[in-house]
Design the sequence.
């Protein structure tokens, strides 16, 4: 157990260095946690740069946030991590930091568009934006609870991101994938145009995602355009989220109350993509879709093998 604990601490320090090197946490920003057991969680301390963590800097807390060990005081934002772990017993690790491009979407209250890159579709899906609350408070910790069962990363309005998974490596991956994706979106938008996947291409990606063992709440939606950012639309009004810079593709979608609170399509005449294909529920893949799925599978597995 001592050896395993030391390895966990070394891994947390390594993830901290990677976060710092990527520019995701300036000064002492960010925090990391790792579930040790049903009653104990390893976490980073407050007021220490994540780029220079040492194993002896880390501390342990119980699920109520009470510090059990460590020479330094635990992070003040541990309640965010614990709220996620309590809601999701399968989650063993949580990463919170301020990746600049993803954080910019939270400041602008701009939903991250879907159906643009395969990697973002497979590893992320739709990313919610949680409302702002004072960091370190119980209210702040609870802002993510409406989303934790349908997403593996949440953008925190005017604050940063929080990602979580069954391993610390994966929890960090989701942050890196999201920030890279947001950066690419900004670069593409600066060139003046965004081209979205066709409906059949988007459906093929959801089928691939299911084959790889990733769940996506869009697969449960009926009569909806799966590229229209609708999974978390009910939360937008409270947070002030609105599609301004990135309009969804227009596909002539037929909306239902279970799909949209307005009951009408959110497609905008100013959309950056003029595709007019009708949305359809996921069904058996065509030979062309199977070929596309295989191509994307090979690409995704190649990326995973490099990790």
Sequence:
């Amino acid at each position: 157990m001592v050896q395993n604990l030391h390895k966990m601490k070394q891994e947390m320090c390594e993830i901290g260095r990677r976060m710092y090197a990527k520019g995701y946490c300036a000064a002492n920003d960010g925090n990391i946690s790792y579930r040790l057991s049903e009653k104990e969680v390893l976490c980073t301390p407050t007021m220490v740069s994540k780029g220079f963590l040492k194993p002896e800097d880390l501390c342990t807390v119980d699920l109520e946030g009470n510090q059990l060990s460590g020479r330094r005081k635990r992070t003040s934002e541990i309640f965010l991590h614990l709220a996620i772990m309590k809601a999701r017993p399968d989650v063993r690790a949580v990463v919170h930091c301020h990746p600049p491009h993803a954080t910019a979407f939270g400041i602008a209250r701009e939903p991250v568009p879907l159906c643009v890159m395969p990697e973002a579709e497979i590893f992320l899906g739709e990313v919610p934006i949680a409302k702002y609350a004072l960091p370190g408070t119980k209210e702040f910790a609870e802002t993510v609870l409406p989303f934790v069962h349908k997403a593996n990363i949440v953008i925190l309005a005017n604050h940063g991101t929080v990602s979580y998974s069954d391993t610390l490596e994966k929890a960090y991956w989701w942050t890196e994938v999201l920030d890279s994706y947001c950066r690419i979106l900004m670069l593409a938008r600066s060139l003046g145009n965004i081209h979205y996947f066709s409906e059949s291409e988007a459906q093929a990606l959801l089928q691939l995602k299911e084959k790889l063992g990733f769940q996506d709440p869009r697969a449960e939606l009926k009569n909806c355009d799966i590229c229209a950012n609708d999974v978390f639309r009910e939360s937008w009004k409270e947070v002030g989220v609105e599609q301004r810079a990135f309009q969804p593709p227009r596909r002539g979608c037929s909306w239902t109350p279970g799909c949209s609170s307005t009951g009408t399509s959110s497609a905008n005449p100013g959309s950056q993509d003029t595709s007019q294909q009708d949305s359809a529920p996921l069904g058996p893949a065509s030979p062309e879709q199977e070929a596309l799925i295989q191509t994307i599978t090979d690409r995704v597995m190649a990326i995973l093998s490099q990790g």
Remarks:
- Residues 168-190 form the longest helix (23 residues).
- The chain has two domains: 2-190, 199-306.
- The CA atoms of residues 45 and 74 lie 4 Å apart.
- The first strand starts at residue 31 and ends at 35.
